[in-house]
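TEACHING EXERCISE
Course module: macromolecular assemblies
Task: Read the component lines below, then compare them to the predicted structure of the full complex.
Student: A.B.
Group: 4
Components provided:
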Amino acid sequence: MSEQTETPTSAESADAAGLFDRWDALRERESFSILGAIAFVVVFPMIFTNLPAYNGYMSLVELIYIWAIFAIGFDLLLGYTGLLSFGHAVFWGGSAYAAGLFSANFYGEPLLMVLVATATAVVLALIIGVLSLRRGGIYFAILTLAFGQMMYFLALGPLGGITGGEDGFTGVSVEPLLGVIGLDQGFAGVLGTVFHDISYVLFAGFFVLAVAVAVRIVRSPYGTIFQAIAENEQRVRFLGLNVWRYKITAFVLSGAFAGVAGGLHTIHAQYVAVGSLFWITSGDIVIITVLGGIGSVFGPVAGTVAFLYIENIVSGEIAFWLLVLGTLFVTVVWLFPAGIWGIVSSARSTVREQLSEDDS
Amino acid sequence: MSVAGSIVGFAIQTLAVSSIYILVAIGLSITLGTLKFVNFAHAAMYLAGVYVGLAVALELQFSGDLAGSIGLESFGLDLGFLAALAIVPIVTFGLGLLMERFVARPFYDRPDTDQILVTFGILLIVQELIRAFVGGRSITFSRPDWAEGAISLGPLGTYASWRLTIIGITAVLVLAVYLYIEYTDVGLAVRAGTEDAEMVNLLGIRATRPFLVIFGVGSGLAGAAGVVGGPVFSVVPEVGVGVLVPAFLVVVVGGVGSIAGSVVGGLLIGAVEVGLQMNAPTWSSVGIYALAAVVLLVRPAGLMGVVEVDE
Amino acid sequence: MTENNTQSRRDVLKTAGGAGMVGIAGLAGCLEGGGGGGGDSEYPSLGNYPIEGDTATIGFNVPQTGPYQEEGADELRAYELAADHLNNGGGWVDMWDDLSGDGVNGYEIDYVTGDTATDADTARESASRMIERDDVIMFGGGSSSATAIAQQGLAQQEKVLYMCCLTHSNDTTGGDCVRYGFREMFNAYMTGQALAPIVKEEFGDGLDFYQLYADYTWGQTVEQSIRDFFEDAGWNEIDSVPTPLGSDDYSTFLQDARDSGADVLFLDHYGLDGSNSVSQAVDQGINEDMEIVVPLYNVPMAAGAGGSIEGVFGTDGWDANLDNEPTQVFAESFEEEYDSTPSSPARLAYSGTLNYAAAVERAGTFYPPEVIRELEGHEWSNGGIGDEIMRECDHQTMRDILVVRGLSESEQDPDSGRYWEVVEQSSYPDAVGYDCENGPAAECELGEYGDE
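Instructor-supplied answer key:
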């Protein structure tokens, strides 16, 4: 919606061009993306929970925001820097355990939990990043996968006394926000229709924040260099830039997003499953991001909505939904590398070209 | 039990565990070394080996949701285990050729992230197809009668004869492929490719016959791994990934592109796994990943590595 | 009957009052925790109470994919049978005085199903969908302790009742117990109690034993219980070794067990893991030197292991071949409907649903705290396995357990689900059971009813 620029067609009439240009200029602004995200969190639940058939429900909406934060962060790595990690479950699950353990042993204030989760993910990302980024491409994917599985087996076995092992961590205890505002406190009247309750504001707020931060990053000089590395690492190196430093920055940033999401998930579920560290979780985030469309901030959001909707709603109707999802995934990789968001964007351009031609 | 007995016991366990990893790893290693192709879908060949093997050797019941709707119930040739061991590698060899032609070839010139993504997706599809037709429940792949029971090696202990059989079969297969690559034209092309992957790339000869054949041979071995592994590991759709991840570690540890590397890597991973199982069982799954990480940091090209598959 | 009428009237009023609120707004109202149900309500709204309309929805959340899908499929059959009997009569509904066969408390019973995929997170999400979207008043299921524990945590949070099905870990009604969860299945502790005297009598005094256990919470509780009860009985544990999750090859461990020189080998593995470890043990000829015990039996495990389970001791909760009326009535109606013999998880699913419905009838309302109080301390003897009591202090049912022994391949009859013979029905309180201050119950704190 925001950072992708569209090439203006020559056939545009002066009038239409003026209008479109102004629209583009508007769309180019960072604030436009943020406003878009805010509009999304207001409108989306109303539509999603009131679909005529197979409707969604509120906690799924919140779950979508949480996974979307994870996916946006993953895309900073895959879409912008071109690095494919198969071990991102480490940051999601590791931070979820950190938040849970912190709430059980110290204090379950939600914002503190998210802070602890994010800090944990950043530390993990630094360690794993330094080790994995010594090798590129294929090795990077396999190494991250190996570290991910190592953490999973650690949580399952040797650390079972702390993590609860296979049964998961059940000791999560979430306190009111800032110590006073209960998370399930609702709003009355119109406010209730828009903001639902405090926990909704918390999850939606972090989602909007994640979009804002991601847009800021990709628009910054750093973001430009990330993209340059994805396109041609050699050239960036020739420019005298330290490629490794940018890669580790992207990796840690992406881990931090996963950490925020993992911490929020613990608040949401009040439980941490050991499966959150399993390679399937890493695979899910790959599928979500690629399906939605890499290299854009809103692509991963679209992917999250599609994936979680299929996983939680459609799965009740079609037993072999994973087969459908797998086929969809391969089709996207093969034929539409730009993903769902890319298809939407190109449809929009086509419509606009059509309109412009009609005008002239 | 004697010290010699303990050593023999450890060796046999290690060899048995390593065998299946090695059989799967060789194909991965060769395609990675020569074609620079990352193949997550290699696990689908193992899966094909298990399920086709079951249908050839015994009988395969279809109890998935899709099978019921088209009236498929069961299929089995009931030809026995040796027939499966002969037929399955040929089938997966053929599947490998198809995969090279229709999956790998269109992706040779695309970034390796795309290769990983598409092969990962194909693995998912194969896994879910099996679930839709055969069902997700686990199936028993019975051992052949002649390999039931245990064999006593006197003071050296008693061992399951099936494990000794696996070791024997693997040794024969690995030796045959090794000789094939060492002494034939196909092998020559492969060795040249491994030593100078860049050249192969530039000459655009990846799509030529030797490489096609080698893709098939790797798939054939993975299929054979499915047949011998079927009676050891659980027969469920997810088992493909369960074998793929350790096999990748074997490739990473041993070094890309050489059969010797896969054998050394496989033995090392197997030895660490078995050794930890005997002494610190909770750490056995963690240990093999830690080993892979350490080897990569100390020797980035792997223990027997000849090429760096980096940029 | 009068009660039923007021209930439906209240419902009509509530629906009329809430007509302006659509979906999400209704939920917001619920979260405000006020009198969303209107002044006419006997009880304030809580969880998914009061029910809108004249249909009460129940959720059946079972593994339809993953390693326990066979158990899940059998549970689901029994759940659907239970819903049918509650609405139309039949089976135990005709035998239990509390139930009418004309719905529950004047409401028709409808159900939704979900797939836990034997994964705790998936199970929790699926239950969450049932609670929020489908407005279930109760849900049941779970074929693994991890999924059961994850689901009952959600039940407590959302104030919607959860009737556990297959979960054998001590923690479910021990450290992880909740007010909104109930379990009829026995646990590892009781398995140890039931097995020790009988196995000891069979094999002799003062023997050495060796344990291999699945290295996750369930396996650890079984291992602990076996050690406690067999050492109390005068046996001596030589060693106890965890086998890592995800490994299917037990030969190394089995070899060590044999080398230890122990007399008896306990294989604390469940389902497919159990059938793998037993068949590999027999394959290595271990049964020639040692006696083998598999603490918890189930049908897929026995079917997978085939003749390997011959003479192997274990426990189970119920058997379709038991000679009593409720067993025969249930087995017959199940066979009539599905043309197969019900497994013991199927009976748990059926029984749990009916017990919930009976408690609602006795309470005269679906209001969860009242239903919970009816279930607590409830005693019944028409469930096919003797006298049972749903204990108040930890929501664990105290009940009989079957000690069984595997049959040889030629004696097994897969068509009628016959893989083992019942050696003894170990009865509560003589042979099994523990009081509220002991065993797993000592760690249990149930939490709130929600109307405090």
